[in-house]
Design goal:
By secondary structure, this protein is α+β, with helices and mostly antiparallel strands. It has one domain (32-149): Lamin Tail domain (Immunoglobulin-like). It has helices spanning 2-21, 25-28, 49-52; strands at residues 32-38, 56-61, 67-68, 73-75, 81-83, 88-89, 94-98, 108-110, 124-129, 135-141, 147-149. The longest helix has 20 residues, at 2-21. Residues 1-26 have low confidence and may be disordered. This is LTD domain-containing protein.
């Protein structure tokens, strides 16, 4: 009888523990997500800043708390890396990271590059990593005409 109670107690504890470990789908997905990569700037590719800034990545904070992106990186498959400086993304807000040069604002950042980096043919991938190097989110594509919604 004691063994039966022990087995029943262990089974109940196991069910409770499994329920405590289970997380809702929203908790499993990253709170900071890449939502769009504009990989093919309008018009012919050129060395002009306007052309290069036609490429961009949009990142949204889908969580309920502000997230410091200081030290986060955004990279492509060819190892072009942009490192975020001091920047906080508020809940529900989006930041657009342009490839070229410009003046950073609360909603727009610039990588400072002089040439396009996101491949629109042959495929590429935009990967966001936290300051510790852990993958936060990624968006990949094969061939796209203008942008990839992630």
């Amino acid at each position: 009888m004691k063994v039966a109670r022990l087995v029943a107690s262990m089974a109940a504890a196991s069910v409770l523990a499994a329920g405590a470990l289970a997380t809702p789908a929203e908790a499993a997905s990253p709170k900071v997500q890449i939502t769009r990569v504009y990989v093919n700037a309008p018009g012919p590719d050129g060395h002009t800043n306007k052309s290069v800034n036609g490429e961009y990545v949009r990142i949204k904070n889908k969580g309920k708390k502000s997230v410091s992106l200081k030290g986060y990186t955004l990279r492509d498959r060819q190892h072009h890396v942009y490192t975020f400086g001091t920047f906080t993304l508020k809940p529900g807000k989006t930041v657009t990271v342009h490839t070229g040069k410009g003046k950073n604002t609360s909603g727009t950042l610039y990588m400072g590059r002089g040439w396009h980096i996101w491949n629109n043919s042959g495929g590429d991938s935009a990967t966001l990593k936290n300051a510790g190097g852990g993958k936060v989110d990624s968006c990949s594509w094969k061939t796209v005409r203008s942008y990839k919604t992630c």
